[in-house]
Write a structure and sequence with these properties.
five-stranded antiparallel beta sheet; alpha+beta
Protein backbone atom coordinates (compact mmCIF):
# COMPACT_ATOMS: atom_id res chain seq x y z
CA UNK A 1 0.00 0.00 0.00
CA UNK A 2 1.30 3.47 -0.85
CA UNK A 3 1.68 6.34 1.55
CA UNK A 4 -1.38 8.07 0.06
CA UNK A 5 -3.53 5.08 1.05
CA UNK A 6 -2.59 5.51 4.71
CA UNK A 7 -5.13 8.33 4.80
CA UNK A 8 -7.96 6.34 3.26
CA UNK A 9 -10.85 5.26 5.44
CA UNK A 10 -13.78 3.10 4.49
CA UNK A 11 -17.47 3.92 4.76
CA UNK A 12 -20.66 2.16 3.81
CA UNK A 13 -23.43 4.11 2.11
CA UNK A 14 -26.58 3.97 4.27
CA UNK A 15 -28.79 6.36 2.27
CA UNK A 16 -28.72 7.79 -1.23
CA UNK A 17 -31.74 10.10 -1.30
CA UNK A 18 -30.81 12.99 -3.56
CA UNK A 19 -27.60 11.23 -4.60
CA UNK A 20 -28.67 8.37 -6.83
CA UNK A 21 -25.09 7.84 -8.04
CA UNK A 22 -24.39 6.33 -4.59
CA UNK A 23 -25.27 2.69 -3.96
CA UNK A 24 -26.80 1.83 -0.60
CA UNK A 25 -24.85 -0.94 1.22
CA UNK A 26 -21.77 -0.35 -0.94
CA UNK A 27 -18.38 0.22 0.71
CA UNK A 28 -16.56 3.34 -0.49
CA UNK A 29 -13.04 4.65 0.05
CA UNK A 30 -12.98 8.00 1.86
CA UNK A 31 -10.12 10.51 1.84
CA UNK A 32 -9.34 12.61 4.89
CA UNK A 33 -10.43 16.19 4.19
CA UNK A 34 -10.75 18.68 7.07
CA UNK A 35 -12.52 21.33 4.95
CA UNK A 36 -15.10 18.80 3.75
CA UNK A 37 -15.68 17.73 7.35
CA UNK A 38 -16.31 21.37 8.35
CA UNK A 39 -19.08 21.37 5.73
CA UNK A 40 -20.52 18.10 7.06
CA UNK A 41 -19.26 16.18 4.04
CA UNK A 42 -16.98 13.29 3.18
CA UNK A 43 -14.62 13.12 0.20
CA UNK A 44 -15.65 9.80 -1.35
CA UNK A 45 -13.82 7.97 -4.16
CA UNK A 46 -16.28 6.52 -6.66
CA UNK A 47 -15.94 3.76 -9.26
CA UNK A 48 -14.14 6.08 -11.68
CA UNK A 49 -11.37 6.61 -9.16
CA UNK A 50 -12.31 10.28 -8.78
CA UNK A 51 -13.27 11.81 -5.45
CA UNK A 52 -16.42 13.84 -4.80
CA UNK A 53 -18.01 15.47 -1.77
CA UNK A 54 -21.15 13.91 -0.33
CA UNK A 55 -23.07 14.62 2.88
CA UNK A 56 -21.52 12.64 5.74
CA UNK A 57 -24.97 11.55 6.95
CA UNK A 58 -25.26 9.32 3.86
CA UNK A 59 -22.43 7.11 5.21
CA UNK A 60 -21.30 5.14 8.21
CA UNK A 61 -17.52 5.13 8.72
CA UNK A 62 -16.24 1.58 9.21
CA UNK A 63 -13.97 1.14 12.21
CA UNK A 64 -11.96 -1.98 11.43
CA UNK A 65 -8.46 -3.12 12.39
CA UNK A 66 -5.70 -1.91 10.07
CA UNK A 67 -4.82 -5.34 8.63
CA UNK A 68 -8.44 -6.01 7.67
CA UNK A 69 -8.81 -2.46 6.32
CA UNK A 70 -5.77 -3.00 4.10
CA UNK A 71 -7.19 -6.29 2.82
CA UNK A 72 -10.53 -4.66 2.01
CA UNK A 73 -8.79 -1.73 0.28
CA UNK A 74 -6.86 -4.21 -1.86
CA UNK A 75 -10.11 -5.90 -2.89
CA UNK A 76 -11.78 -2.56 -3.69
CA UNK A 77 -8.82 -1.49 -5.80
CA UNK A 78 -8.80 -4.80 -7.68
CA UNK A 79 -12.49 -4.45 -8.48
CA UNK A 80 -12.02 -0.84 -9.64
CA UNK A 81 -9.16 -1.79 -11.98
Amino acid sequence: MGKKEAHINLAVCIANTGYEDLEVRKVYRVLADAKAAELGCLRVIDESGEDYLYPADRFMILEIPEAERDRLLAVLEAVAA
